[in-house]
Amino acid sequence: MSDSHRLSIRFVIVSCFLCLYVFMPQITNVMLAWGNITRMVENITAANYSLLALCKLISTWYHGKTLRGVMAMVMTDWLTSKNDGERNTMLNIARRGRTLSLRCYGVAGFGCMFFLFMNFLKFRRSMHQPQRILVYHFSYLYNINKSPNYEITFFIQILCGLYTALVNSSIDSFVSIILLHICAQLINLRTALRNVVDELAKGSISSSEFKKELGAITMRHINLIR
């Protein structure tokens, strides 16, 4: 089995788990809370977060080849930087991207710890009760009040909730880093254009060389904004 087929199978499995154990229960809870504005807002907020993660996961999988090409372009840019000025610009922007990613993962980590703590308390309170409470209430086709059905379902929902946070934070960080890298390349193009114009004004290069450099800058700009 090829790597692409394995990735597709993993994607289908993860998507099904997220739909069955996170998104569908949240949407059901929105319908059940119809008329209670406070509960509806809470459930809609949670449903939007999980739906956003699911959409990001689908988009990333669907555009996988394009994203791999973008990552290859980023590596090529780092390996083929022409001078120290361009590299310093890329380093400064990359540091900002790293800081942004660390903050994003920090917020996600804090949220995950709070999520685990609150649901651990819920799990302890429900262990010896006849009517047990899940992370996301939903009427499954099996009896969730029996062991080990309840424990398995509860921890699957916990893992899916954590995976939702991981998907959102990871894809947001990845997209942010890519956008910042493109910004760095545009800054380098602006600097290169200024240098070429200055050299032409000083007579350091001929008009044919200027047109050649300008054409290369234009093509690079077109590739970046695609």
TrEMBL record:
GO terms for molecular function: odorant binding; olfactory receptor activity. Its main location: membrane. Pfam families: 7tm_6. InterPro entries: 7tm6_olfct_rcpt. Keywords: Cell membrane, Membrane, Olfaction, Receptor, Sensory transduction, Transducer, Transmembrane, Transmembrane helix. The chain crosses the membrane at residues 7-24, 44-63, 100-121. GO terms for cellular component: plasma membrane. GO terms for biological process: signal transduction. It is a multi-pass membrane protein. It is found in: Cell membrane. PANTHER family: ODORANT RECEPTOR (PTHR21137), ODORANT RECEPTOR 19A-RELATED (PTHR21137:SF35). This is Odorant receptor 13a. The lineage of its organism: Eukaryota, Metazoa, Ecdysozoa, Arthropoda, Hexapoda.
